[in-house]
Write a structure and sequence with these properties.
single chain; 3 domains; alpha/beta; TIM Barrel; 8-stranded mixed β-barrel; 21 helices; binds magnesium ion; 5-stranded antiparallel sheet; Alpha-Beta Plaits; binds ligand C2E
Amino acid sequence: MTGQMDRPSAARRSTARLFGVYAAVTIVPVLILGVVLAVTFRNDANRRGLAEGRSEAALIAQTAVEPRLNGLPLRAGLTSAENTDMKRLVALAVGGHDVLRLRLRGLDGRVVFSDDGSGFGEKGDDDDEALDAAHGAVVARLTRLNSDGSDTGAQGVSAVEVYRPLRAGSPSRQVGVLEIYLPYAPIAHDVDSGLHRLYLDLGIGLLALYALLFSITASVSRRLRREAAINAFLAQHDTLTELPNRVQFLSRAKAALARAERSGQPVAIAIIDLDHFKDINDTLGHGSGDQLLTELARRISANMRPGDTVARLGGDEFALILCDVSDAEQALFRLRSVIAGEVEVRGLSLAVTPSIGFELVTEPDADVDILLQHAEVAMYLAKEHHSGVVRYAPELDHFDPTNLSLAGELRRGIDAGELVLHYQPQSVIARDEIEAVEALVRWQHPSRGLLSPDRFLPLAEQTDLIDTLTDWVLRAALAEIRGLREAGTDVAVAVNVSARNIAHADFAEQVIRALRDADVPPDRLIVEVTETALLIDPEQAARVLAELADAGVKISLDDFGRGQTSLGYLSALPVHELKIDRSLVSDMCQNPAHAAIVRSMIELGHNLSMRVVAEGIETEDVLADLGEYGCDLAQGYLLARPMTLAQLEQWLTDRGPRRVAGTPPSSL
Ligand code: C2E
Ligand code: MG
Ligand code: MG
């Protein structure tokens, strides 16, 4: 499945790239910090070198030079005694390499003594450090020997050049300036060895900082990436099953359609809906429902081909994209049987059958929402007809979703006691006496009002719900008839049953039990079954009807004339009554063909020892003609419309002596 495509090498490449980016990004600040610190250390070391030179110069000035001066300003030159002393001093100091050069200057900057005679008698420039020192400042700088403008000769070694005022005499006063060059090499050696240690420590520290920064950045970004990946996943997936959600389904479907255009192979868009999933949720709880959905999602995914997609659209609805599929119907039937296999949920073995609708497309610009709607219409039809898998076709699109939702509500309606029975009387034409009433079901819907059977029966008949409904009608009709009997009105009640009811081998048993429970004699019940219901499984129907007839229940063949019952089959059935369909009866006065058919049917019924009922009698003319043809019973709006039990009681009372009580007709 493309949803779980594995791309380890791509992931490895992207991790390595990210690793490189982190390494580069984190090393830049560390390097800048390192350079700044190194420069600061170097400057600091130089400052310390100069300070050292300054103190050394002060020491030499105070201990060796100043005591040798007589206190007169040096501008006029040294005395010969001073000169001799100074020569001795420099012989010692310069000879011992403690000093590189020593000069004495007057306060005007002129050199009055120079150990090597250089610059003697020269005056420094106006900005010369000598003049600063003449004004009392101590000036020190790093330089090289002979690098001053006034010096001659090749540049010498590194030196600390210090200018400082010279004081002498009593009281002491400034007499001149000492210019001294101290060798920088020993100072530099001290400074450098200190700096090396510092650089080493700095290097180690920066390395540790880099490692720390790197690991923090890497871990934070890893976490952020993980969270971003989770958020991206949630935006595109269903949280329960982790399957793609509708958003991702739509984009994948579009991509699949674009691919289909290139490959020329159709794409199937399918919707799977689980039958009766709501019952599982309601009875076992949502936890079990979720467990079941998760397991089914896993099963569906495991049975998809790579490149196909399964998504959960919500509730118990899944959607599929099958690419390059040669026989989508077959593939979906296979998938259906996989889903329908038993699932163990909290110790219970559950099996849900899915209904699947699908649409096959090749057009790349097809609207995926419309394709989904088509698949949904087909899915509802699959549900309605218990056909498992249905492919969409435009002619299916008259499907009314309101009816579907009604079918879903019917179970609740039955449990909530919302069904009611209306009764329509049947009279014996010859005597104008009421002999039976037909029970006709209605649904007092809480919001839609009173619904006629054609609104909800066809849907109930597609599911097991019709069994519950028929059982309810049977028991309610028998209980109400028994009430009438007890009140002194003994009429039989006709109850309609569906094809699905008589398909159950134990249906007769169920009817007999209901009669017993209601304490109503079997001959007070007429079971109305339509011709078409008999034709679905004639042998099974014949068995059930025979069982009912044996128990004393009367069988009426409803809507006779609408189907094509073979006369041979009809004569073999234990049918007591033919009920001519109202489409033939209601217009028989205007339609001679219908009149002829009705007449023949009456004759046929009598010849087979059956009574004949005509339904749909709306006019006196029709009733008169039927009487003339020898029809036994009449039912229709002319006599009475279907009515509630209370209305029926009133209606019967109003008829007075023409009512029939407790005298079942001899022919029945
Ligand atoms: P049906 O068994 O043939 O019932 C007679 C239908 O004809 C009733 O419609 C009744 O109202 C209508 N009818 C009676 N006299 C006249 C008339 O003079 N003119 C016209 N135009 N119509 C007349 P309803 O009650 O709408 O029932 C429709 C069908 O629904 C019934 O046809 C029956 O097949 C089915 N049905 C009703 N109740 C039940 C039930 O409890 N169980 C089952 N399985 N089916 C039922
Ligand atoms: Mg009927
Ligand atoms: Mg009928």
